[in-house]
C-alpha cells in the first residue's frame, strides 16, 4: 500500500521568491536538509527531466543512522515537473542496500499565494516503508521551517 506524508507552512515571502528557492542549487543546500543534517549537492541540472544528487550528512550519526552509510543519506532527485510559481515535483530515490528504502518517492511542493503570505504544502507519495512516518513528517516540517527562516531573513532590511 502506498503511503502519503505531508506538511505545510506559511512563509512571509511572495510565491515567486519561494519557487526560486526550490530550484536554486545554493538555496536548496542551505535550507533543504532538516535539523541535524547538512547537505551538499553533487550533480545539478535544473530542468524538467534533469535533477540533482544530494548527500545529506547526519551531524550525530550515532543517534540517526543513515540509509546509505552510517552517517549519510544519498538521494538522487529528478525534476519531474517545474511549474512556476505554483509547483515543483521531485522524484526521489535513496541510495541504499536496504530494500525497505527502495522505490521512487514523489514529493510535490505546492505553492499557494494567500493574503498572509505563501502557503507551501509538501506531499510525499509512495514513501518507502523503511522511512518512519512521524520522523519523515517532522523532517519535512523542519525543512519548511528552514525555508521560512532562509527566505524571511533574506527579506529583512540591512542596517546601515
From TrEMBL:
Recorded hits in InterPro entries, A to Z, give: ASHA1/2-like_C (IPR013538), START-like_dom_sf (IPR023393)
TM annotation in the entry: none
- Domain named Activator of Hsp90 ATPase homologue 1/2-like C-terminal: which ranges? 12-152
Its family? Belongs to the AHA1 family.
Under what name is this protein listed?
A: SRPBCC family protein
Amino acid at each position: 500500500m502506498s503511503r502519503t506524508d505531508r506538511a505545510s507552512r506559511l512563509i512571509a515571502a511572495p510565491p515567486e521568491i519561494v519557487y526560486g528557492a526550490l530550484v536554486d542549487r545554493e538555496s536548496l543546500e542551505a535550507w533543504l536538509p532538516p535539523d541535524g543534517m547538512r547537505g551538499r549537492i553533487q550533480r545539478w541540472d535544473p530542468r524538467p527531466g534533469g535533477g540533482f544528487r544530494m548527500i545529506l550528512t547526519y551531524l550525530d550519526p550515532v543517534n540517526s543512522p543513515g540509509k546509505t552509510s552510517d552517517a549519510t543519506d544519498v538521494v538522487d532527485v529528478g525534476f519531474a515537473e517545474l511549474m512556476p510559481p505554483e509547483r515543483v515535483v521531485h522524484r526521489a530515490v535513496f541510495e541504499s542496500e536496504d530494500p525497505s528504502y527502495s522505490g521512487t518517492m514523489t514529493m510535490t511542493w505546492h505553492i499557494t499565494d494567500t493574503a498572509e503570505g505563501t502557503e507551501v504544502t509538501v506531499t510525499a507519495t509512495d514513501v518507502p516503508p523503511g522511512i518512519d512516518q512521524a520522523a519523515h513528517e517532522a523532517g519535512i516540517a523542519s525543512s519548511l521551517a528552514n525555508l521560512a527562516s532562509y527566505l524571511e531573513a533574506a527579506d529583512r532590511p540591512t542596517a546601515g
